[in-house]
Amino acid sequence: MRELRYTLLSDGSSDRALLPLLTWLLHEHTFELAIQSEWADLRRLPTVPRTLGDRIQKSIELYPCDLLFVHRDAEREPPEVRRNEIRQAIDVVSTLTILPPVICVVPIRMQEAWLLFDEPALRRVAGNPHGRMPLQLPRLTELENLPDPKENLNELIREASGLNSRRRKKIPVSMYAQRVLEFIEDFTPLRRLSAFNTLEDELKDILRAHGWLINVARDDKEG
Length: 223
Known about the structure:
By secondary structure, the protein is an alpha/beta fold. It has helices spanning 19-29, 52-62, 79-94, 119-125, 149-161, 165-168, 173-177, 194-209, 216-222, and strands at 2-9, 33-39, 67-71, 102-105.
């Protein structure tokens, strides 16, 4: 079985939570490839790279890969602004070294918006998988318009725990939030979101160009 190695370079350490989602996408569109993932942890370097270009270059030096995913949250900027920042950094680095294919991962607002659709996963990460407390999940069509998805996610985890208000305050919601994607088995609902579709389309183009796409005719039809 052939191996496909990818590295995720993200905005922050909590964004390593995107690894299960990216691995799922690769399994969706590749065949007989063993997927190996790495998160580019640059925090403990003697000199932490400051610019995006330097971080990209250091990531491929320390975490050699076949695919590099570069994550930036859009936050208050249009997603295309972040994608252009990534592409400009890639152009600079490509004049200095050989780069693997690079794919932009730019959720609208922040990656927490991609964690707000799976109620069982939220209950499991909160340690209360059989809880019956109603959870007011946003509609899928509203996820990309939420002003603060991180706060929405934190509050849903607190509610899913079923604990009283005093004990809820002690829940390490940031740590729990990083694990939500581990409990999601099917990310298909996210295909209703524009930023997720952009990511998947870009990934398919790269896989097609390198002969890794599982079934070109099928994926073109689905796209």
